[in-house]
Amino acid sequence: MKWWTDIRRKVLVEQVSKRKVMAEYSIHAKTLEKILSNPEPPGYRMSRPRPKPVVGPFLGRIEEILKQDRELPRKQRHTAKRIFDRLKEEGYSGGYTQIKEAVRELKGRLKEVYIPLSHRPGEAQMDFGYALVKENGVLRKVAFFVMSLPYSDAVYVQVYEKICTEVFWDGHVRAFRFFGGVPCRISYDNEKVMVAQVLQNHERKLTNGFLQLQSHYLFKEHFCNVARGNEKGVVESMVRYTRSNFMVPVPEVRSLEELNRELEERCRDELSRTLRGKGRTKGQLLEEERSCFIDLPDAPFDACRIRSTTASSLSLVRFDRNDYSVPVRFAHYQMVIKGYINRVEVCRGDECIASHPRLWSQEGVHFDPVHYLALLERKPGGFDHARPLEDWKLPSCFRDLRRRLEAELAGEGTREYIKVLRLLEKHSPKELARAVEHALRCGASSRDAIAQFLVPRMEWRYTRFSLDGHEHLRHVQVACVDVAEYNRLLGQEVGA
């Protein structure tokens, strides 16, 4: 570069003759003209592209294959090797390297170009992702819900067992509560929990579940074109960001609810970060953005899926391919099941007659042993073989009570023991266990005796005498009692 600069300065500034410079530096006249025309060496430039007589006739075919691949899943697209094999069958006689270079060049030219978008306050984007979680030592895959506000860059994340309607509802309810309002417009992809059918002209047939949520919160929806996740690129990147930053290393928790509390705290910490290019924190921008939100309704959306069913002869109702027990007196009755993300409630009229933890497997059964005690009281012979009681763990005092009852009452001991267990219909296991232990110490074992120990009693020191409602008794004077009078009475009785 130095000699290039020296030649230019000698000719253009010092007015040294070109002939003398060519002789001094041993360069050709054309080379000198190139140096004088360019401030720096321009490098090698071809006047026209090199001909490609072997691969050239097949470039159009390669481009056609690559364009067709854009409509296919990423894992099922052509590699350069597969294109080479196909072209050999079509008459290509060259080597693999030329095909590989042609594929790389054409893929670069065919890459899509995107328009930078502006994000107005009050708009949101929502998506689902998947991650690994170790729950109680078991590694498994879970879904996670992400809602992002592109204007303030605030984000809300929660994990769930799987993607379904009630999960979709619950994520929105929690996100709206976290953001302090409802975004006026939310962008989605075409997940089946939201879109029942993709129609022509960008129209969608929406699911009833989506319409119920929208009717409650009154936000506008926007659906991306099929396979065009870039149209909601902010939340797409947030799915990757939260997975990499919130779930690496793999979270080890006792329950998903515990992980959700941690994730919500992480989302809250994110609000203190200063947003690049805006000079303010995410929390400050979110506070400003709330003026564009729709106010939260007085009552949150009840995020449960409702199904009508009839209890079977086994006092079981089915929801989402799993069975749940109800009290035997409701067998063969029609009832309503409410499926939340963490529990299943069975209702008859306005009364909740059973509540169970939600099962996320398939063909599972969750029994409440108390539901079957009324039937077992009539059929005590089935007590030791009743499936609902197989895994029922009770304190050791119940085992002692049963042995005593069966020893004292012979054939009726099991029935009396079941009557004691039926006290669990109104009292907690802890309260009943305490009453049973008290009864065993006192030598009592019947159901009626144990029930007496469940009646709440206040200690005398906490009681207070009150004349409220008996104002006329305030004028009664009671003389002080002389205890010695009692001894005199005893003496009179002895003398008599």
TrEMBL record:
All copies of domain Integrase catalytic, residue ranges: 117-290
PROSITE patterns with a match to the protein in the record: INTEGRASE (PS50994)
InterPro entries according to UniProt: Integrase_cat-core, IstA-like_C
A GO BP entry: DNA integration
Protein name: Integrase catalytic domain-containing protein
Organism: Pontiella sulfatireligans
